Amino acid sequence: MTMDIELLQRYDAPVPRYTSYPTAPHFHAGIDAEVYRDWLAAIPRDEKMSLYLHVPYCTRMCWYCGCHTKVVRQYGPVGDYAKVLDREVALVSGEVPEGPEVTHVHWGGGTPTMLSSEDFTALMSALRARFAFAARAEVAVEIDPRTLTEDKALALARAGVTRASLGVQDFNDIVQQAINRIQPFEMSADVVGWLRGAGISAINFDLMYGLPHQTVELVVQTVDLAVKLEPDRLALFGYAHVPWMKTHQRLIDEATLPGAAERLRQAEAAAERLAEHGYRRIGLDHFARADDSLTTALDGGRLRRNFQGYTDDQATTLLGFGASAIGCLSQGYVQNAVPFGTYAEAIKSGRLAVSRGVEVDADDRLRRAVIERLMCDLSVDLSVLGADLGAPADSFAEELSALAPLARDGLVEVEGSRVHITEVGQPLMRTVCAVFDRYLGTGKGRHSRAV
Do 55 and 13 share a domain, yes or no? Predict the structure, then answer.
């Protein structure tokens, strides 16, 4: 069902992606290394944990990129960074009580596979030596197909990688040139073959819409080509043009960017084509095969959302390693220093590198739960969820009133305390979630548009 363009123009405002709540613009320097040390010491011994490792280096800058990364031409800085990561793993693990079990590991970037096979393997060995891994822990790594070799695929498999996420974005030449990322279909096909040949059978693709020169036809062509490689999951992200934050995005000619209505048509056409190919829609922007664990989690009401997007990971603690990495503990969020020099100086001095974060209170936890259920299930019963978390029955009277215009416009259905995002409103689910965000508009953070 297609949204009316007038509705899109009315509601397509800048809103957070809600991979956390409170969101990162509201982190502050009051949460420092000493606070983090106390939080680590309080992790329950029977906790399930996830680990995230950030590698902030690439061989070439993609102009659409919104990540914390830096271009390097030689391996020296990357090798030095691996040593600092190893030291941070030792420091953090020394503060965590014995007992918590690691169920998921995610390597992100940047380009994690810029690490040499030897350094990657050594770091995985360090993680396994210092943390207790579950027998079937998932180890996922983000891959730039332009830099992977068959030998590296084999090394990743030997190091225990079980899932690979390939950055694809778009297979069309004109779009690739406009975003400074030349990556022919055959290159991605080779990488998928190498990974599966090495025994890494779980494959994810990242696609994008809203890129320069993209049209509905070109986006659908990319979807069809991607599906030929039979990935288990695909993520379909809208390009976030934020040149005030990422100055390299100024190299993109804004005149070639599709407008809001065209972006919506691209997103809807891609989603429809993925459905035709047998993929289930997961939340806002993920798609998975019917037998994938994400789909199972969705059907079982266990779908979660974190900094990597949608996940079936049920761990309540996430430890982040590397410059700019974000962690989540029961007390709140922490983020390491962003500049590599500042981060490395702290770690080399034997100090934790956390430079900011935010402590969450009962109201934050309640609103985070509401937003997560809306982002995952498209529905939430505010009374039931509030009662489960010990909140007063009238906690969301103001929000229910604020939802009335959205209900009149067909974006949501409200029955008593139950809120359901309709098919028409699904592209704007972040806008619906923003109604429950008590921080929005109180800080300096600027966000991408809803669609």
Answer: no
Helices vs strands, H then E, count in the chain: 16, 19
DSSP 8-class letter at 30: T
DSSP 179-218: TT----HHHHHHHHHHHHHHT--EEEEEEEES-TT--HHH
Residue 421 CB neighbours (<10 A): 24
- Residue 431 has a CB neighbour count (10 Å cut-off) of 22
Count structural domains, the chain: 2
pTM listed for this prediction? 0.93
Give, for 328, the enclosing helix (H) or strand (E). Answer: strand 326-329
Q: How is residue 364 written in tokens?
A: 């934050």
Tell me the CA distances in angstroms from 158 to 53, 94, 437, one per residue in order: 18, 26, 44
Q: The domain containing residue 394 runs over which residues?
A: 1-17+361-442
Q: How far is CA 349 from CA 41, 91, 104, 106, 345, in A?
A: 20, 11, 29, 26, 6
DSSP state of 436: T
Q: Do 11 and 450 touch, CB atoms closer than 8 A?
A: yes
Which helix or strand (DSSP H or E) is residue 311 part of? strand 309-311
Reading the chain (451 residues) residue by residue, the pLDDT tens digits are 566 777 887 887 788 999 999 999 999 999 999 999 999 999 999 999 999 999 999 999 999 988 888 899 999 999 999 999 999 999 999 999 999 999 999 999 999 999 999 999 999 999 999 999 999 999 999 999 999 999 999 999 999 999 999 999 999 999 999 999 999 999 999 999 999 999 999 999 999 999 999 999 999 999 999 999 999 999 999 998 889 888 999 999 999 999 988 999 999 999 999 999 999 999 999 999 999 999 999 999 999 999 888 999 999 999 999 999 999 999 999 999 999 999 999 999 999 999 999 999 999 999 999 999 999 999 999 999 999 999 988 899 999 999 999 999 999 999 999 999 999 999 899 999 999 999 987 654 455 555 6
Are 149 and 97 within one domain?
yes
Query: Which residues lie below 8 Å from residue 238, measured CB to CB, with a gap of 6+?
Result: 208, 209, 210, 263, 267, 285, 448, 449, 451
Instruction: Show Cβ contacts of residue 38 under 8 Å, excluding neighbours closer than 6 positions.
Output: none
Q: Are 27 and 81 in contact (CB under 8 A)?
A: no
Relative to beta strand 132-143, strand 101-109 is: parallel
Asked whether residue 351 is domain-assigned, the answer is: no
Domain for residue 44, yes or no?
yes
Cβ neighbours of 38 (radius 10 Å): 10
- Listed in sequence order, the residues at least 6 apart from 205 whose beta carbon sits closer than 8 Å to its beta carbon are 165, 166, 168, 226, 229, 231, 233, 234, 235
